[in-house]
Description:
- The mean pLDDT is about 90.
- By secondary structure, the protein is of the alpha+beta class.
- It has helices at about 35-50, 55-65, 140-145; strands at about 15-20, 65-75, 85-95, 100-110, 115-130.
- The protein has one domain (about 15-145): Thiol Ester Dehydrase, Chain A (Roll).
- Strand 3 and strand 4 form a beta hairpin.
- Belongs to the 4-hydroxybenzoyl-CoA thioesterase family.
Amino acid sequence: MSPSDTPSSPAQAAYRHPVRVYWEDTDAGGIVFYANYLKFFERARTEWLRSLGIGQQALRDSTGGMFVVSETSVRYHRPARLDDLLQVTAALHSGGRASLVIAQQAWRLDAEGQATELLCEGTIRIGWVDASSLRPSRIPSNILESLS
């Protein structure tokens, strides 16, 4: 995404997950450590899938497959700070038979719970693999149907 593409608010169709910034998320200056945005994105993706009835452990148990992150691209705009309440989004950007690209954003929320500042955005490619061999495989059709 280029700066001119930066949205003024979270996409309406995106799944939204609240995240509070704790001490453990910050550096010595009270600013969120950059790698922790990937953790926030992971939580939002997991909860998004769960909201669609796709529990990852149950999925692995029933299909023998699982999602793994194969690529990330992240752009940082502004820092989040200790005690901030964030809204982290996840939305399907594109998908194929063996991988999905998820668009994600982290927004700062104001006292009324409105998203006011885009802090971080990125895309995460997740691939489907056989859980025992970790070899790429096709995403089960029922999962693709749930996501579309």
